Amino acid sequence: MTASASDPAQALVPRHVAIIMDGNGRWAKQRGRPRTFGHAEGVEALRRTVEAAGDLGVRYLTVFGFSTENWRRPVEEVNALFDLLRLYVARDLDKLVREGVRVRVIGERQGLQHDIAAIIEDAETRSVRNDKLNLTIAFNYGGQDEIVRAARKLAEEAIARRVAPKDIDPALFEARLDTVDLPPPDLLVRTSGESRLSNFMLWQSAYAELVFLDVLWPDFGRPALEEAIALYARRERRYGRSDA
Ligand code: IPE
Ligand code: IPE
Ligand code: MG
Fold first, then answer.
1. How far apart are CA 159 and CA 163, in angstroms?
2. Hey, what domains does the chain have and what are their CATH numbers?
């Protein structure tokens, strides 16, 4: 069966695109530059991608900016990545709010520096009435960490007798995830040629279409996003059924 734009599950343009922005370090290395140079160029790619996603009619764009495992990197690189989040919000938030973008950040907030937590809250509050494009930044995010935090919340609710264990089902569980307001991703893209999820949206990607592109993240932009969407449009989504 061919995809039809009227059925949201089969729409040619995915409602929710999630991207693992990978390959900044390799991009910089190819140019004999420090990894942080690649990360800075990665912000330019993010700007292009947000704009292109809005133009193409994508409603939800979720990007992986910093994983719970990225703390294993040298402290200078970790600091540079945090600085880039500060810079991105400082430079782009006004424009994003003006253009109708709703900004959310998912991931573990506890333990983040106070100014980062404040920046995140400000971005979310200022854009809360927008809904043209939902931009979600996964920062200090790990799929396993998110699932464990949700399980912990449910355990606490069960002890407080607000939830009965027999009532726990996927919907109840999902409502405790960081992505509570978001539909599941339809298309999950990873750049840089690696074919793994690296702990990104493990629960939410159960039925996402996966696209792995050979482009390094700093080279990403409208053409690469269009390529990923074209590959998506040719996929047949079945959700366990024997036909689509
Ligand atoms: C992606 O690029 C950015 C983050 C993980 C924060 P990398 O820094 O992982 O670049 P490669 O994979 O080493 O090339
Ligand atoms: C995943 O990329 C994390 C982000 C893109 C933020 P990594 O570069 O950290 O993943 P691995 O270590 O290659 O699996
Ligand atoms: Mg990488």
1. 8
2. 8-233 (3.40.1180.10)
